[in-house]
Amino acid sequence: MPYLDRNGVKIYYQVHDGGNDSDSDSKAPLLLLTHGFSSTSAMWKAQIPALSRHFTLIIWDMRGHGHSDYPTDPAAYSESHTVGDMAAILDAVGGTRSRSHAPAIVGGLSLGGYMSLAFYRKYPARVAALLIIDTGPGFRNDDARRKWNDTAEQTARSFEARGLSVLGGMSAERAGVAHLHKDAKGLARAARGMLAQRDARVIASLGDVKVPSLVVVGAEDTPFLAASEYMARKIPGARKVVVPRAGHAVNIDNPDGFLEAVMPFLDEVRREGGGGGGDRAKL
């Protein structure tokens, strides 16, 4: 299993490269997908065959999740660390393919989508396109952010008190992966350091996005319908697709509907040279 060492913290990732994982010379566009809080890279399993056919698909486990390390220091969990982990993974994968710092298609679900927006904010030149799935962009309002953070703290305490059994009552992308986590303490630290939000910088930056962007949301993902509409309006030129018969795990709830939503967008980015396969996407 491939790991990346990040100052003593091992980060697990997988590369599925154009249908041939061993093809280190592939010029397939880079596609980095990040899972949601308390899920793992396994949530993308059903999409690997389709997404790796024409893309160098990279999936990974955030720190405190799955096969990655679970640092005991709470300060090791943050938006900044997560964005840095994403950059380091792209460096490692792109470097082996003579495409170091080539712009990638960057996306994720829920917290993974938020971190993708945070990644763009810090490294805009490294992003060819954004794929934002079942995600909220954070909060401008301090009171709303405090309520969100109170919920994150309650989540952390639940993991500390009840362990991984908490996952049994969560959505589909979480309920089936409890056995893939080493313990619940890393998830508790991740809730406090990564799920909780410190400021409004990400939501305030939506209007500055200058790459093709697709916002995807499940029709039954009620808490995120308004947030998805907000992002589609605020991100210049963004497109939005609502996937039927799907909740907060759209790619798991309706795998075919998810691919129908994202593949035309991804193929268009690829044809225009996005994701490290040529010039930066301009759709």
The end-to-end span amounts to 36 Å
CATH superfamily: Alpha/Beta hydrolase fold, catalytic domain
Unreliable spans: 20-25, 277-283
Radius of gyration (CA) equals 17 Å
Approximate strand percentage: 15-25%
Number of strands: 8
Offer a concise description of the structure.
With 283 residues, the chain is an alpha/beta fold.
Tell me what you see in this structure.
With 283 residues, this protein is of the alpha/beta class. The protein has a single domain, classed as Rossmann fold, CATH 3.40.50.1820. The protein has helices at 48-51, 79-96, 111-122, 142-162, 172-175, 185-195, 201-204, 222-234, 250-253, 255-271, and strands at residues 3-6, 9-17, 30-34, 56-60, 104-109, 127-133, 213-218, 239-243. Helix 4 (142-162) packs antiparallel against helix 6 (185-195). The protein is globular and about 50 Å long. The protein starts with a strand and ends in a 12-residue tail after the last helix. The model is unreliable at 20-25 and 277-283 (pLDDT under 50).
Layout of strands and helices, then pairs:
Layout: E1 3-6, E2 9-17, E3 30-34, H1 48-51, E4 56-60, H2 79-96, E5 104-109, H3 111-122, E6 127-133, H4 142-162, H5 172-175, H6 185-195, H7 201-204, E7 213-218, H8 222-234, E8 239-243, H9 250-253, H10 255-271
GO molecular function: hydrolase activity
Organism: Cladophialophora carrionii
Protein name: Putative enol-lactone hydrolase
Characteristic key phrases:
single chain, 283 residues, alpha/beta, Rossmann fold, 8-stranded mixed β-sheet, 10 helices, 8 strands, globular, AB_hydrolase_fold, Putative enol-lactone hydrolase, AB_hydrolase_1
